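Section 5: illustrative case.
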């Protein structure tokens, strides 16, 4: 699978690994890493995490799971963007002169709110990336072939 700047193919909806370290995952066409079209579902075995990509072996094709597809859309289009963008937007708004006109504060607080928004955005992206790596078992003890 290949993605360039978030556009391309990738797995989402990855299940918790079973005792053998196998899981199911849906192959998605993505734009800006957001799931757009589910293409197929597979049983896979994560093999090795190299840099920013996961190696895996496709063991079998599986039936598409409507519940998993709807869950992936919900998390990909609503939950994750909201967790990142709502606090980011609020912090940026709190740093505007309009907010300061309603709630007067020292000038340095406007800068502080904008700086906090940038830190929030960076930490959110970092935590999502860490969650994705942990989900794929980067630190797991699955046997390697």
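Designed sequence:
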């Amino acid at each position: 699978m290949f993605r360039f700047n978030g556009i391309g193919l990738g797995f989402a909806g990855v299940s918790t690994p079973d005792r053998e370290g196998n899981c199911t995952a849906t192959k998605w066409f993505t734009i800006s890493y957001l799931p757009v079209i589910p293409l197929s579902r597979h049983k896979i075995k994560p093999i090795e995490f190299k840099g920013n990509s996961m190696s895996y072996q496709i063991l079998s094709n599986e039936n598409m799971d409507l519940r998993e597809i709807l869950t992936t859309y919900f998390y990909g289009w609503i939950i994750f963007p909201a967790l990142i963008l709502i606090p980011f937007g609020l912090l940026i708004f709190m740093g505007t002169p309009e907010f300061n006109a309603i709630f007067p504060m020292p000038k340095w607080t406007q800068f502080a709110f904008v700086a906090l928004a940038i830190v929030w955005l960076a930490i959110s992206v970092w935590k999502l990336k860490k969650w994705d790596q942990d989900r794929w078992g980067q630190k797991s003890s699955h046997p390697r072939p």
